[in-house]
TrEMBL record:
Family in the record: Belongs to the MobA/MobL family.
Organism: Acinetobacter chengduensis
Domain of life per record: Bacteria
Record keyword Transport present: no
Protein name as annotated: MobA/MobL protein domain-containing protein
Residue ranges of the region described as Disordered: 378-430
Pfam entry (one): MobA_MobL
MobA/MobL protein domain mapped to chain residues: 29-277
UniProt feature, compositional bias: Basic and acidic residues: 401-422
Entry-linked InterPro entries: MobA_MobL (IPR005053)
Polar residues biased stretches: 385-400
The keyword Transferase is annotated on this UniProt entry: no
């Protein structure tokens, strides 16, 4: 057993909704992921994807304790054509990457274990299909061409795409419940009844923010992983992958967390769909692809990426990062640093400094002795103070100063008014 762990950053798991308002069909999605031809018995619409290749394994799971004689096509016909009239979202579809370090047999085991756990948790059915990488033949041919002619292209992304086996999940919006004796003996059969099951209420945990009127009394706890559907799908499937890697003595580990949640300062990239990759292969420029190229160049200069991602680490350090302990340490250190003051606090500090400056100036002026403004008087006082035997004079009071200024003003002669010039000559014609 190795004492090293490699943290991989290629984990991906996305969830989308299947909505009536967008013209989506759950039968069409099942036909696509299984590469089959399915027919809607009610509308007569045919969904034919039988020419599609690259399907490795498919499966269909019902909740434990419910067995049905319906085929997968009949079951989803029943779901699509008998869903509640007020229901817009009729299913959820997700796609997740599978670890290339494991053979296809182990990948199938991971998916089947996850499906069993999911049906236990949510009480509904789930279908899956494992696919090879999209456009696998074209990508392999391109890689062989690069290697054969030694073309100046980066083939690392192409190699990863070739190994990109992935799994599709399709999940109905509602619970699948067993029929009771009362349901079997009912005179009026409801349209939600199947052969051994019935369509139940919407699973409230699928959409914890916006949910139907029948479940408003029991709101889910968003902080509880078991009641947060998106978090459950991403985290639990990642845990299943890591458990399988550990059983097979592999040192790689995947994480559903972002770099920020791991406590690493690394530039993040954005997901590129198959459409973007195909257009880039045709020589077109895509904004998402160009952005990711810039981010990947930044990553090559960032110490956290070079030291912690895709490199062997001591097991203790690797699990410390994966469990979020590094982030906790970083937050603790940040809390010990002086926090920047708000604008209100900065303004209050500036006002206090101004008030302190005013007080200091007032104190200095109060302690400062009076100095006469007249230069001659200054000179006389200076001579008196420097002459031998001179006695120090007392400082002049304010009343004395006022009296002295009045006398000085009275002694000054008043200016005489000058006679105005006679300007009659200005108007003389001579």
């Amino acid at each position: 057993m190795s004492d090293k762990i490699v943290i991989r950053n290629q984990y991906s798991h996305r969830v989308s909704t299947v909505k009536k308002s967008n013209g989506h069909s759950i039968l069409r999605i099942i036909a696509y992921i299984n590469a089959r031809k399915l027919l809607n018995n009610l509308t007569g619409n045919e969904h034919n994807f039988s020419k599609k290749s690259g399907v490795i394994e498919t499966g269909f799971f019902m909740p434990h304790g419910i067995k049905t004689n319906m085929s997968e096509e009949q079951f989803y016909n029943h779901i699509e054509n008998n869903s509640h009239a007020s229901t817009n979202i009729i299913a959820y579809s997700s796609i997740a990457a599978l670890p290339p370090e494991l053979p296809p047999e182990e990948q199938v085991k991971i998916v089947e274990e996850f499906c069993n756990m999911f049906t236990d948790q949510y009480g509904t059915s789930i279908s899956f299909a494992i696919h090879e990488a999209d456009n696998l033949k074209h990508k392999k041919a391109r890689l062989e061409e690069i290697e054969k002619y030694n073309l100046p292209e980066d083939d690392e992304d192409l190699r990863l795409q070739i190994q990109n086996n992935h799994v599709h999940f399709v999940i109905p919006y509602c619970k699948i419940e067993p029929m009771t004796d009362q349901d079997f003996n009912a005179k009026r059969k409801k349209k939600s009844f199947g052969d051994t099951f019935k369509i139940g209420n919407q699973v409230k945990d699928f959409n914890p923010i916006k949910y139907g009127s029948e479940i408003k009394k029991d709101k889910p706890d968003l902080m509880n992983l078991e009641q947060n559907f998106l978090q459950f799908m991403r985290e639990k499937f990642c845990v299943s992958i890591n458990n399988s890697l550990e059983k097979n003595n592999r040192i790689e580990r995947y994480t559903h967390k972002s770099y920020k949640d791991l406590g690493l300062q690394i530039s993040a990239t954005v997901h590129e769909g198959e459409m973007v990759k195909s257009r880039v292969a045709q020589g077109k420029k895509m904004d998402v692809h160009e952005y990711n190229k810039q981010q990947k160049l930044k990553q090559q200069t960032e110490s956290d990426y070079l030291n912690f991602i895709n490199v062997p680490l001591p097991k203790e350090l690797a699990y410390k990062i994966l469990n979020g302990e590094k982030l906790a340490e970083k937050e603790l250190l940040d809390s010990l640093k002086p926090q920047p003051k708000s604008e209100l606090e900065q303004a209050q500090d500036l006002l206090d400094q101004i008030n302190n400056a005013h007080q200091l100036i007032d104190n200095k002026l109060a302690d400062h002795e009076y100095e006469p403004l007249d230069l001659r008087e200054k000179l006389d006082r200076l001579k008196e103070s420097t002459s031998p035997g001179a006695t120090p004079t007392e400082p002049e009071t304010l009343s004395q100063k006022l009296e002295r200024l009045k006398q000085k003003q009275a002694e000054q002669p008043k200016p005489k008014a000058e006679p105005k010039d006679d300007n009659d000559n200005d108007y003389s014609p001579f």
